[in-house]
Design brief:
Structural class: alpha/beta
Oligomer: single chain
Number of strands: 11
CATH superfamily: CNF1/YfiH-like putative cysteine hydrolases
Bound molecules: zinc ion
Order of helices and strands: HEEEEEEHHEHEEHEHE
Strand content: 15-25%
Distance between the termini: 13 Å
CATH class: Alpha Beta
CATH topology: CNF1/YfiH-like putative cysteine hydrolases
Helix content: 10-25%
Strand order of the largest sheet: 2-3-6-5-7-10
Largest sheet: 6 strands, mixed
Number of domains: 1
């Protein structure tokens, strides 16, 4: 499940359901928004302190946010949340365990998806039972980067290089992640075609600078 700006209490420039508590928004508004989300999913929501890396945390019960860019749980009493505003929210769903990952340029290149799947392996979850969703994120025609950065990321993650509409160097994060998943042995891979920078109902750091964060969530029923 992925949230949007709809239904929250934050004021501009965070207007809507901002779930990020590290972006300068009123802490009271963020905590009301987080309570609204928890009541919508019917269980406590576990957030993380995201650091653009590939650290994965195994969660068994709600607690303070771990310093991590991915979480996995085999417990039904908690929903896992990843916060984004252009980076890719990745949801892993299997009958035995679920996970979320924060996959931006750095996390993708650092191998956050592979690190997350390794935790599923350690739990004994069959990879073919895991469906992976790559949620709304900045698209390959909007995410302009310097030419040397594109070359570096494309070398580390083949398939991630792209071009903007103007023909300048860009990255397509979801294409790179899909390429990484192609050999990972997972079940279904679903790609959202929504671009955060082109969708006014989503937060986009590239478009707006100071702004909120929306969330991708996964939980066991
Ligand atoms: Zn776009």
């Amino acid at each position: 499940m992925v949230t949007s700006r709809d239904g929250g209490t934050s004021m501009p420039p965070y207007a809507g359901l901002n779930l990020g508590d590290h972006v300068g928004d009123d802490p009271e508004a963020v905590s009301v928004n987080r309570r609204l989300l928890a009541s919508r999913v019917g269980r406590p929501v576990q957030f993380m302190r995201q650091v653009h890396g590939a650290q994965v945390s195994l969660v068994r019960a709600p607690g303070p946010p771990p310093e991590a860019d991915a979480m996995v749980t085999d417990a039904a009493g908690v929903a896992l949340a990843v916060l984004v505003a252009d980076c890719v929210p990745v949801m892993f769903e299997s009958p035995a365990a679920v996970g979320v990952a924060h996959a931006g340029r750095q996390g993708m290149a650092a191998g956050v998806l592979a690190a997350t799947l390794k935790i599923f392996d350690e739990l004994g979850v069959d990879r073919s039972s895991i469906d992976v969703t790559l949620g709304p994120a900045i698209c390959g025609r909007c995410y302009e980067v310097p030419a040397d950065m594109r070359a570096d990321v494309q070398r580390r993650v083949p398939g991630s290089g792209s071009e903007t509409r103007a023909g300048t160097p860009a990255l397509d994060l979801r294409a790179g992640l899909r390429a990484q998943l192609a050999t990972a042995g997972v079940g279904r891979v679903v790609l959202s075609d929504r671009c955060s920078a082109e969708s006014g109902d989503l937060y986009s750091y590239r478009r707006d600078g100071r702004t909120g964060r929306f969330a991708g969530l996964a939980w066991l029923p």
